[in-house]
Amino acid sequence: MTDTRTTIRAAVIGAGMAGQAHAFGYRNATMAADLADVRVVLDTIVDPNLDLASSVAARYGFEKAVADIDAMLADPTIDVVSVALPNHLHAQVLPKVIASGKHLFAEKPIGRTPDEAAGLARLAERSSAVMGVGFSFRRLPGLAAVARAVADGVIGDVHTVRGWYYADYAADPQGALSWRYDQELSGGGAVLDIGAHAIDAAQFVAGPVERVLDAQLRTVITDRPRPAAGGIGHHAAVTDETGPVTNDDVAIITAAFAGGAVGTITLSRIAHGMPNSLGVEVFGTRGHALFDSIAGGQFHVFEVGAAPAAVNGPRRVFTSPAHPYFTDVAPMPGGGVGTGYGEAFVAEIQEFVRCVRDNRPMDTDFAAAESMMNVVGAALSAARRGTPVPV
Amino acid sequence: MTDTRTTIRAAVIGAGMAGQAHAFGYRNATMAADLADVRVVLDTIVDPNLDLASSVAARYGFEKAVADIDAMLADPTIDVVSVALPNHLHAQVLPKVIASGKHLFAEKPIGRTPDEAAGLARLAERSSAVMGVGFSFRRLPGLAAVARAVADGVIGDVHTVRGWYYADYAADPQGALSWRYDQELSGGGAVLDIGAHAIDAAQFVAGPVERVLDAQLRTVITDRPRPAAGGIGHHAAVTDETGPVTNDDVAIITAAFAGGAVGTITLSRIAHGMPNSLGVEVFGTRGHALFDSIAGGQFHVFEVGAAPAAVNGPRRVFTSPAHPYFTDVAPMPGGGVGTGYGEAFVAEIQEFVRCVRDNRPMDTDFAAAESMMNVVGAALSAARRGTPVPV
Amino acid sequence: MTDTRTTIRAAVIGAGMAGQAHAFGYRNATMAADLADVRVVLDTIVDPNLDLASSVAARYGFEKAVADIDAMLADPTIDVVSVALPNHLHAQVLPKVIASGKHLFAEKPIGRTPDEAAGLARLAERSSAVMGVGFSFRRLPGLAAVARAVADGVIGDVHTVRGWYYADYAADPQGALSWRYDQELSGGGAVLDIGAHAIDAAQFVAGPVERVLDAQLRTVITDRPRPAAGGIGHHAAVTDETGPVTNDDVAIITAAFAGGAVGTITLSRIAHGMPNSLGVEVFGTRGHALFDSIAGGQFHVFEVGAAPAAVNGPRRVFTSPAHPYFTDVAPMPGGGVGTGYGEAFVAEIQEFVRCVRDNRPMDTDFAAAESMMNVVGAALSAARRGTPVPV
Amino acid sequence: MTDTRTTIRAAVIGAGMAGQAHAFGYRNATMAADLADVRVVLDTIVDPNLDLASSVAARYGFEKAVADIDAMLADPTIDVVSVALPNHLHAQVLPKVIASGKHLFAEKPIGRTPDEAAGLARLAERSSAVMGVGFSFRRLPGLAAVARAVADGVIGDVHTVRGWYYADYAADPQGALSWRYDQELSGGGAVLDIGAHAIDAAQFVAGPVERVLDAQLRTVITDRPRPAAGGIGHHAAVTDETGPVTNDDVAIITAAFAGGAVGTITLSRIAHGMPNSLGVEVFGTRGHALFDSIAGGQFHVFEVGAAPAAVNGPRRVFTSPAHPYFTDVAPMPGGGVGTGYGEAFVAEIQEFVRCVRDNRPMDTDFAAAESMMNVVGAALSAARRGTPVPV
Ligand SMILES: NC(=O)C1=CN([C@@H]2O[C@H](COP(=O)(O)OP(=O)(O)OC[C@H]3O[C@@H](n4cnc5c(N)ncnc54)[C@H](O)[C@@H]3O)[C@@H](O)[C@H]2O)C=CC1
Ligand SMILES: NC(=O)C1=CN([C@@H]2O[C@H](COP(=O)(O)OP(=O)(O)OC[C@H]3O[C@@H](n4cnc5c(N)ncnc54)[C@H](O)[C@@H]3O)[C@@H](O)[C@H]2O)C=CC1
Ligand SMILES: NC(=O)C1=CN([C@@H]2O[C@H](COP(=O)(O)OP(=O)(O)OC[C@H]3O[C@@H](n4cnc5c(N)ncnc54)[C@H](O)[C@@H]3O)[C@@H](O)[C@H]2O)C=CC1
Ligand SMILES: NC(=O)C1=CN([C@@H]2O[C@H](COP(=O)(O)OP(=O)(O)OC[C@H]3O[C@@H](n4cnc5c(N)ncnc54)[C@H](O)[C@@H]3O)[C@@H](O)[C@H]2O)C=CC1
């Protein structure tokens, strides 16, 4: 049996929380039936923390682990590269990857500021490689189904939007002062770290935000213990020393959408009891729709007049093969079996791989990241100035 | 058996949607065990629509129905008066009732503007009678329980607030253009009609709003058919003629609370599929709490550390005799049996009657109404000016 | 104004938990618009515990309280009588009321055994007065709406049924040994006390049970402290002495329905954390429906093919004026405002009063009670014998 | 870098619905940190439908696809074998695999009857290889967490159990007559196909069933179109010819548990609107617990006295790293991110691989399968005879 499959050789830069999810995505990409003609070779994990890189390589089946980005980029056999680095490294590393000519799949938010994002987007535009961005929540079947239903006009014209991301990763004041709490390194607290997803999700469902009408940022926990070296994600051993938190724990954005709707997007990383809930709720002239990732195996759609009033009400729709991505990521795809957040990474890497194979641009591209970052940028200005700011 | 009970003779002005609920409240007030020493005499229903007044009197057991407010007020045997009139009549009628020396229980919002509310509040302050206001949602056991839990420190210091009132009474563009859609007659659309309740509820749980940071008002359905005469509440026959809607269908307020919290209050009267949902969600330094009237027989409380992490999570608390008002309004009071919105009117009239009996001021007084109206006033200014406005 | 209304003079026998709910029902009966032509006079509360009777009379506006049933029955001015006595008194008191010729509204279950129920039903059949029974759960708008939707064929032919009543009133082993725990006085533990409602509800929605296929009864808490005198409902002071529980805490019935369906009915009075949840869930050839009283302001209906698969799912229907009873018992009737369990008593007394006014039989009559009791009787036999028992 | 990892070479027999899930499991097994010392080689997919086998091999990264089981078994390099074949082939194929000396992971139910299961269990006992069975639902973090909480005594002694599996895969009467509808090929309809999981789950949480007290089996859809060749899982093209369904669509089992509890287990494959919901609800002397796979990212625990009554209620616990399997299968493990059903296969293969590496028996072994099958066997007898049957 000759292998006629297209081979795509992949590397992941950054072996932390997001990097591991990418590794999982590459490993499972070909489970989609339409990708059986592709062979994804799991080549390299790159992280200066080589122990971490090695362990991630072993756990996710990558051939090797290295510490040096440049060496890896110099390897001509590598076709695609994921970048999952702390935000302050995006502007430093992404240009190199773009320059290498390899296809790039970069974690959100793409830099820390509208300027950084714009600069990177300009570079990406000039590349002929696929340039994708990790707006992973869009790959949840329930959120994608809501976006599709809204686009299909099921709820009429959208007039009111509520987006949110509640997380509790920062609710404990004893949590380590990682790069996420440093405005310089991160570009933003909740407003960007989780706001990136919630803003993108709101735009995905309700169309582009055209104006930030108001933004409020609050830091509730002002000091935290400094981490010992080597932590990843939200977990790190702490030291006795404390340092200041220089970005927001809570952000509330009021926004006007280009389509005429108005709404709020609320971001909190200190939402005790709500560990991870990204949601979008939209009301339109004929109904409403709601998705909440914390019960992501379902979403809700109301359509006025769809049934006699005595038996009409919001429908609780269970995710199923009728929805985007489901069949491609659920090894036993059936209505109601449920998919997890890991599967969102499989779906996005599948989409990235399809674009690479077919040589076409990706839906979640640098322009999408720039658009999202412009909303964050407008929010930060609005928060500072106390006036509306166009996006 | 000599009747040693205190007699309280009651009249209700306005026999519409709210007036009927007051009538129900008076009729059932004495079911509270501690009010068995009071005899509430259901005396008069006053409404220019005498047919309506008569039918309401018959249905709720009032002795008579009259059309003339002044004549009723001149009757010295009447002790207490409820006023449930369209907003533009508050400033006209409430002073007369106050002048009569009778105890007054007035429907929210108390006038249409901060000025009207302030004027009325000044009059009320000078009265030695009880001056209560109908913030009926506060009497829902679940909302009152949340307010109590927050006051008791169960969730720590509140930093983030979300209040809302979603209703669909105006979602149908063919609904009649009643006084509610006229800025002049109403003082506000969703922002005041249902906002009064949601703002009061948010303040009840999270303390006073000190500054409106931003407010957005939108009119989505700009014209409606004019009503034929005689409709009440949200229902009226319509004519062929249409007229303009001059107030808001949707309002979004961002607010700073005196206690340091920040939050949003979203009001919509066109929320398809959410017929009547008033809610408050608060996050604090030790937990969160949530109440939503659409499932008002329960509320949710999360307390960090209250149980080992593997079995901790938001608690779904069913309303029960452990909560305010429950035992007084549920004829068969048991955990989980549920009480409805009608019972909120029983509870508020009970509280009013207690204050009358005991000659003490009421918790929901004109100052509370003025405070709420000042938030609405600040919201309307903020919406006009596009800048923050102190309350 | 001459009063042209029909006068109905009412007495309630038994001033305990259920008697108070009846009192509430009579007091509010005429709030239904179609009952404005009736004047319900709240005449007498009868209870040997005269203090209790007096207090209940005062609280619910009845003219007098007496201890003696016979004297009250001898009063020819009294038109209608409710009986809300412990089960062992039904067979003793109901015949007297029937003999008096007065209209009778009797609390479930109507005696303690199929024989007692049958005897009482035969007496009732011979009366020309209205003979109603208090299957109060049927008056919850949500349950009634489910029954109506099923009857209308919305879910096709029902094949599978689940009924339940979970309560926790007996979950605390220190709760007093009232008449409810005595097989002789009660006729049954959970199987009858709450089973009466759940079985009636299941039959209301899914049609008559034709055969008990299996029944399991369990007593988990075998001894309880004896009560001090004077407790009502589930609450009584306890003594140091304990006594045996002689009926079931938990009962599980498997039943065949005449329409071809099969199902279970589970009853527990020791369901920690589920204070009061009566439910019915039915699956049919075209959908399913579910009602749970613990969130009684909503119910769920699924209809296959009612919407494209990608947006179809169980509908969460909020109770509203579109549903039975709602408008008659909610003083401010609007979708989603919610009604409580108290309102179920208003609705059933309204229906009783209508039947009295119109001189027609009631839907929840002694035959319904007999049918329910026959299911319990069959369940008790099946439990004893370990074989199926026809109803 | 010398690879010091233990190599485990895997084959999967059966490339249908379950076989693909196993393939996914093997592919991701080593993502658990404690399995980084193992190298799982994805060797062979075996299915007579060679096109299917090839496509599954390609999609899940297996080196080859073959049609012949015996040839594969003869290959000494293969260490572990999964069997995911229709039930009637278990008794035929499993003995061969056992005889091969390879480690075996077999899909439930292990044969079609207690006799077949016992025969296979006896064979397995005699093997020194690891002999595991695919009770995949046990690997859902939420169900495992409930089992652990119950075992830890959080809810006291369990007295009442409800288990269920509602699915809708057979709700459409036009669905193809696959092996699942043939009593001879399947060994049982809902009672075994999904009952296997629900019974195992109930035993997992509440301990062994000791007696089937009653069982009811019903076939609602008696004829179905015969499939065209080649379908897998629940999907196949159909022909014009119909054939009889010879097993149950709905099964209701009443059971006594060895620990003293009583309960029901309800199985339906025709539950319109409930595509896939496996659940267990248990009430004990100190609380209750509930898991429902359709919202599998959460479960519910109530503990009496765990908080003051005014704020106590069932806790909605979101699955997180505090729960079994979570960290091992979620590439980005955080509270509330959610895992899907696919991850259950990863977790079970991980556990299988651990047992192989460590040379120890698996928790879900042939004895567990035999125990489950004995409950089904007792249920089928009880259904036939109409009397209780010991397990
Ligand atoms: N899509 C999603 O849901 C998520 C996206 N992210 C995004 O992923 C990015 C990374 O975040 P996390 O994984 O949470 O961070 P992390 O702190 O867990 O991991 C960052 C990793 O980068 C490594 N690193 C640091 N400098 C490096 C360098 N010069 N070269 C190579 N590796 C280097 C660190 O050793 C560490 O292993 C961020 O941009 C974040 O916004 C993060 C989490 C979730
Ligand atoms: N607490 C609550 O939940 C609610 C409060 N309200 C408040 O109650 C007030 C009344 O609202 P609705 O009852 O909905 O209005 P509605 O339109 O249903 O009824 C108003 C009634 O006032 C009568 N009326 C008009 N002019 C009168 C006069 N000069 N003297 C006596 N009666 C007169 C009308 O004939 C009509 O019957 C408003 O201020 C509203 O904000 C209304 C509904 C709910
Ligand atoms: N529909 C429903 O939801 C409910 C129905 N019930 C039914 O109502 C009936 C009474 O139950 P509860 O009210 O809970 O009992 P309870 O124990 O609360 O009250 C019984 C009352 O009957 C009085 N009584 C005893 N002997 C009497 C006599 N000879 N004459 C007059 N009064 C006498 C007692 O003093 C006590 O006040 C039962 O048949 C029960 O099944 C009870 C509760 C709820
Ligand atoms: N753990 C779980 O959640 C699930 C377990 N199962 C179990 O897995 C087993 C298989 O069920 P499905 O995958 O649904 O069946 P399926 O019908 O989807 O697949 C069966 C496969 O076996 C193949 N096959 C038939 N004869 C064969 C032979 N002699 N050698 C090799 N392959 C052969 C067929 O070509 C087909 O591809 C059953 O025992 C079932 O109970 C099935 C689905 C879910």
UniProtKB/TrEMBL annotation, chains A, B, C, D:
Domain called GFO/IDH/MocA-like oxidoreductase: residue spans: 145-288
One Pfam family here: GFO_IDH_MocA_C3
Keyword NAD carried by entry: yes
Gene3D superfamilies in UniProt: Dihydrodipicolinate Reductase, domain 2 (3.30.360.10), NAD(P)-binding Rossmann-like Domain (3.40.50.720)
Entry keyword set: NAD, Oxidoreductase
Domain Gfo/Idh/MocA-like oxidoreductase N-terminal: start-end pairs: 8-135
GO MF entry, a single one: oxidoreductase activity
Source taxon at top rank: Bacteria
Membrane-spanning parts: none
Protein name, entry field: Putative oxidoreductase
The organism of origin for this protein: Kineosphaera limosa NBRC 100340
